[in-house]
């Protein structure tokens, strides 16, 4: 079962570039987001906010009839939702202003579409907790809230990076997650060269979640591509 409890959240993207709006919205939908709305002006965004209040917003700073900072202030007065800024302006002052207003993240153009989905997913998971954090696997359970594996009655702690790797694998349970995607999720944009470190973490994770790490049945390698997490049947 795909770990998508947050993907039914309403996402509003506000930007005045039609091509970027199309790219971002299509990328989010391809990634499993079920309710993505778009606006190209402050006026249009205000109407969307009133008619179909979102659970999160991605705002461009420079808009034809205003700016994302003012729009962020308007949103925060009526709704407590996570906000990400998306802008071509990379000056430190803009970044500090956006984050200082209470925004949850700040992404500078140009960017990889996958970077936005990963950052948005991280913000949504942090702000909207899942009701059932217990994950059933063949050897036992994973508890993400406590960062532990429960196997044969024993609680085995997970490190932060092990938990992050398992988290993205669980959110895509049953599907192949590429090596690049896992490295970027754990080490950020400067992830090149971390393939060996990822393999070491995968090996340690298997020692914790598999009954027989040398013959894994839960965390599988897809040669040349990445890894796949198999949930216990009935989950």
Q: How are the elements arranged and paired?
A:
Elements: E1 10-14, H1 18-30, E2 35-39, H2 42-51, E3 56-60, E4 62-63, E5 66-67, H3 68-78, E6 83-87, H4 92-100, E7 105-108, H5 113-127, E8 134-137, E9 140-143, E10 148-151, E11 154-157, H6 160-171, E12 177-178, H7 179-187, H8 195-209, E13 219-222, E14 226-229
Helix pairs in contact: 1-5, 6-8
GO molecular function: phosphorelay response regulator activity; transcription cis-regulatory region binding
Protein name: Stage 0 sporulation protein A homolog
Domain OmpR/PhoB-type: 132-231
Task: Describe, in plain words, how this protein is organized in 3D.
The chain has eight helices and 14 strands. It is α/β, with parallel strands linked by helices. It folds into two domains: 10-127, Response regulator (Rossmann fold); 134-229, Orthogonal Bundle (Arc Repressor Mutant, subunit A). The strands form four sheets. Strands 2-1-3-6-7 form a five-stranded parallel β-sheet, with helices on both faces. A hairpin with a 2-residue loop joins strand 8 and strand 9. The chain starts with 9 loop residues before the first strand and ends in a 6-residue tail after the last strand.
Record keyword descriptors for this entry.
Arc Repressor Mutant, subunit A, 2 domains, 235 residues, Rossmann fold, 23% strand
What is the residue-averaged pLDDT? 85
Number of domains: 2
| Morphology call | elongated
Q: How many whole angstroms does the radius of gyration measure?
A: 19 Å
Beta strand count = 14
Order of strands, widest sheet: 2-1-3-6-7
Distinct helical segment count: 8
Q: Kindly report the name of the CATH homologous superfamily of the largest domain.
A: Response regulator
Order of helices and strands: EHEHEEEHEHEHEEEEHEHHEE
């Amino acid at each position: 079962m795909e770990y998508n409890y947050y993907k039914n959240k309403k996402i509003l993207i506000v930007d005045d570039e039609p091509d970027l709006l199309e790219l971002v919205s299509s990328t989010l939908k391809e990634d499993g987001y079920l309710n993505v709305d778009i606006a190209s002006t402050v006026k249009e965004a205000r109407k969307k906010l009133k008619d179909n209040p979102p659970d999160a917003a991605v705002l461009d700073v420079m808009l034809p009839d205003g700016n994302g900072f003012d729009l962020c202030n308007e949103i925060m007065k009526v709704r407590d939702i996570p906000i990400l800024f998306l802008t071509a302006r990379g000056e430190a002052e803009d970044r500090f202003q956006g984050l200082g207003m209470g925004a949850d993240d700040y992404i500078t153009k140009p960017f990889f579409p996958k970077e936005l989905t990963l950052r948005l997913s991280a913000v949504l998971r942090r702000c909207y907790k899942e009701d059932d954090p217990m994950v059933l696997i063949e050897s036992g359970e994973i508890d993400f809230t406590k960062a532990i594996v429960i196997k044969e009655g024993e609680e085995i702690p997970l490190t932060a990076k092990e938990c992050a790797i398992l988290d993205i694998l669980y959110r895509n349970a049953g599907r192949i997650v590429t090596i690049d995607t896992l490295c970027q999720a754990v080490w950020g944009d400067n992830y090149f060269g971390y393939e060996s470190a990822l393999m070491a973490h995968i090996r340690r994770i298997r020692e914790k979640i598999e009954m027989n790490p040398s013959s894994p049945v839960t965390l599988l390698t897809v040669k040349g591509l990445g890894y796949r997490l198999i949930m216990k049947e009935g989950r």
